[in-house]
Design a protein that fits this description.
Elements lengths: L1 H7 L4 H22 L7 E5 L6 H17 L3 E5 L6 H8 L7 E6 H10 L7 H4 E11 L1 E4 L8 H10 L5 E4 L5 H13 L4 E4 L3 H10 L4 E4 L1 H9 L4 E5 L26 E9 L4 H14 L3 H9 L3 E2 L6 H19 L4
Parallel strand pairs: 1-2, 1-3, 6-7, 6-8
Antiparallel strand pairs: 3-10, 4-10, 4-11, 5-8, 5-9
Helix pairs in contact: 3-11, 5-13, 8-13
Length: 333
């Protein structure tokens, strides 16, 4: 009898207070577990300054994700180390789908090959979501070289090995790899001159201080129109709709099969839950079918992805391609 009474005795004030948090937590846990993704703003980290091609692609994706997922998406620019600073931030973030990388082929396939200080492995430390777009680059000449076309370029450089130089936006950049692949395929000897970005590179090409350059078609367009630089070839497999008069580099017999384009992609930290990864992939894939989205990417000089590409395979294959060029050119950051 006394035992029954003891079991019915009310909790002490201290016991009641101690029990409340546990009870509240027990009630809250199912609600938290069932909270649909996304239930708060998503951060899209970009490893480059505002206004560039990667930033352009990121803002297009931010808008389409916001529309498809019904959540606000905030772009954060964190420039440094050819995109690797931003990628490291994402790699170190919780795999909950709220911190994503709007990256490029630089930090997702190339920089680890030339920068031994890079701590993350793109193939192991990122969850690939999907390809956004590809971005072919352009081989161009200064008018001072008197080179008017791709055939004359190959002939001129072959005739005087080591006499000419070409510039890119930096060691290990897509532009650098594209230039080295031209040299490798055509058997050319040119000196590579790295610049910090494309502004100084374009200025020196226009001035004739630099003989040739690999640069963005978008950045080159106004200078092509004014005749201040001469377009020689585009790095995509086929001619670009934006510059139909410029041949693909692969149209030259010594460069047959040439193809090397930069690309933009969406990724998350490793161990992202599969259901969140699938929601993001579905949103990206659906958004890339929207004509307005595709038009915005094309106006920024990119070729929109179909949404069906295997990003993991793209990273793997391009890393292998870049590794061979690193060995060929003895690249060092």
């Amino acid at each position: 009898m006394s035992h029954r009474k003891a079991s019915l005795r009310p909790l002490s004030r201290r016991g009641a207070i101690a029990a409340l948090p546990a009870a509240a937590l027990a009630l809250a846990l199912p609600a938290l577990a069932d909270a649909p993704y996304p239930s708060k703003p998503i951060k899209l980290v970009v490893g480059y300054a505002p206004g560039g091609s990667v930033d352009m692609a990121a803002r297009v994706v931010a808008d389409l994700l916001a529309t498809r997922l019904g959540s606000s998406v905030v772009v954060e620019n964190l420039a440094g180390a050819a995109g690797a600073v931003a990628a490291q931030r994402v790699v170190n973030s919780p795999p909950d789908g709220y911190t994503l990388l709007a990256g490029s082929s630089n930090e997702m396939a190339a920089t680890a090959l030339v920068n031994p200080a890079q701590k993350y492995d793109p193939q192991k430390d990122l969850t690939p979501i999907g390809l956004i777009a590809t971005a072919p680059v352009l081989l161009a000449a200064s008018p001072k070289t008197q080179v008017k076309n791709l055939a004359a370029f190959v002939e001129t450089v072959k005739r005087q090995p080591g006499r000419y130089s070409y510039g890119s936006s930096g060691v290990g950049s897509t532009l650098h790899f594209a230039g080295e692949l031209v040299k490798q395929r055509a058997g050319l000897f040119m000196t590579h001159i790295p610049y910090r970005g494309t502004a100084a590179l374009t200025t020196e090409l226009v001035a004739g201080t630099l003989d040739f350059a690999i640069l963005s078609p978008t950045a080159a367009a106004p200078f092509i129109q004014s005749g201040r630089i001469v377009p020689l070839g585009i790095s995509s497999a086929k001619r670009s709709p934006a510059l139909p008069q410029v041949p693909a580099l692969g149209e030259h017999p010594l460069l047959k099969g040439y193809e090397l384009a930069g690309w933009f992609a969406l990724a998350a930290p490793r161990n992202l839950p599969p259901e969140i990864a699938q929601r993001l992939r579905a949103a990206l894939q659906a958004g890339l079918q929207d004509p307005a989205v595709r038009r915005r990417l094309e106006e920024g000089g990119a070729v929109p992805a179909t949404g069906n590409e295997d990003l993991a395979r793209v990273i793997r294959e391009d890393t292998g391609k870049y590794a061979a060029l690193v060995k060929f050119a003895n690249m060092r950051d």
